[in-house]
Amino acid sequence: MSTQRSTDQQSKRRIRIFDTTLRDGEQAPGASMKPEQKVVIARQLARLGVDVIEPGFAISSPGEFNAIQQISRELHDVEICGFARCMKEDIDAAVAATRDAARRRLHLFISSSQIHLDFQLRKSQDEVIRVLRDMVAYGKQFVDEIEFSPMDASRSSEEFLFRVVESAIEEGATIINIPDTMGYAMPEEFGPLFSRIRHNVRGGDKVVYSTHCHNDLGLAVANSLAAIRHGVTQVEVSVNGVGERAGNCSLEELVMAIQTRGDAIGVETGVNPEHIYETSRLVSRMMHFPIAFNKPIVGRNAFQHESGIHQDGLLKNRNTYEIMDPEAMGIPRSMIVLGKHSGRHAIKHRIAEYGIQLADEQLDDLYTRFKSKADEQKIITDDVLLKLVSESTDSFLEPYTLMDLQVIAGTNRSRIASVTVRRAEDGGEETFAGAGEGPLEAVIHCLRQAIPIEAVFEDLELHSLSTGEDASGEAVVSVMYQGERYRGTAIHRDIILAAARAYVSACNSVLLSGRNSVEPTQNVAAQ
């Protein structure tokens, strides 16, 4: 049995991951980045284990050129791809920017669909063939590896597409990339296209095949997998699926589809899954592009469950309702979301994570309070849950409670804040003041004085839970403490107050995490 498994693993075909986050991804409206940001992301992509990075469009600006040049000089363990139209000035810029790369290629493209020829290029088919032949030959004198893409291939006539591909191969193209530029193709028609190209083009069996799929119909990953089934060994992707219009084939979705179902199609990648979440969040922050809650793999809801039936199954065996392990991708384990659909098992599990154990009658009282509160708001956040536990036990369970917050903001001055925090240990309250460039920075400065732990403020997410002037905001704060990540959540109409409460909740999680059980501090106010 083990011999058979070893043989199966050895027979898997390796799919090279070509990342175009920094080129096509950055072309999404509003996604442009500073050169130094592109370098940071490129370093992370190298850690992630992608095979090829397309770091930008060198001809587009001096900053773009410099970023590509720095990435080419610094990253020696990944192939760098220079992107260019079939134009000499584009090729010259791409060649110059990538000159210092340890391994590099050129990626040339020209349109092949009739609608592009008629209305964009305003050239005949013969003129397009002449241009691409000249430019592929021109680029070949600088590099050994030439990747060629007939843009809008999936809407091109196959007869002309075959001519285009054959011409590129004859002039020295070594990689043929067939893009579904407009996200128009269907998997059952797109996959077989590669087989027909290979069989109908002279030299078609001598080159490497790649694909680059857009997601206009939500089929980018499906079309890429269909291409793989028909012999493609490279797929062009972007982190979080960013890119023109609805974006590109999502790196994390494709990689995890192969990781999870690779045995079904006999392929594998060299990507390190443990860096997926970190990479996703980095790209989201750098581009200021939020990730949809229901985004596969990296979306907030991808591994969270509110249904009591699902929660009960997960607590007994994770595989009942999850086909992937989020922690293997660096995703913090927070599978249980508490809301009106949650049951007793989920509530008991969540408070146990804080080291809290309740008697049966206390748990029953907590469950009743919980259900009543859950009807008022969509999600029961950690700070609210602990307050409900306090009410059920007539105790103070939170080491620190934010009692009051004041912030003074203005256009020409630093923001000044003061907070009053109560300690559960002795019931004492103390007020702290601080300043910062923004109101949240000022508040966090105050809270760091109040809560004496060396926790690093790592991340803040703010989400609107409703619309209009009375909208509430949900804050999710992550802090790092001794290599572990802790999260706190809070909801309020005042987003600064929500963020402050979430930070206190995260710090309380740090303080409570080391306890096997909580010994409640008697409610001073009740005495």
From TrEMBL:
Highest taxon of source: Bacteria
Pathway(s) annotated for this protein in UniProt: Amino-acid biosynthesis; L-leucine biosynthesis; L-leucine from 3-methyl-2-oxobutanoate: step 1/4
Domain Pyruvate carboxyltransferase: residue ranges: 15-277
Keyword terms of this UniProt record: Acyltransferase, Amino-acid biosynthesis, Branched-chain amino acid biosynthesis, Leucine biosynthesis, Manganese, Metal-binding, Transferase
One MF term in the entry's GO annotations: metal ion binding
The EC number(s) this enzyme carries: 2.3.3.13
Example GO biological process: L-leucine biosynthetic process
Enzyme class per UniProt: transferase
Family: Belongs to the alpha-IPM synthase/homocitrate synthase family. LeuA type 1 subfamily.
The name this protein goes by in its record: 2-isopropylmalate synthase
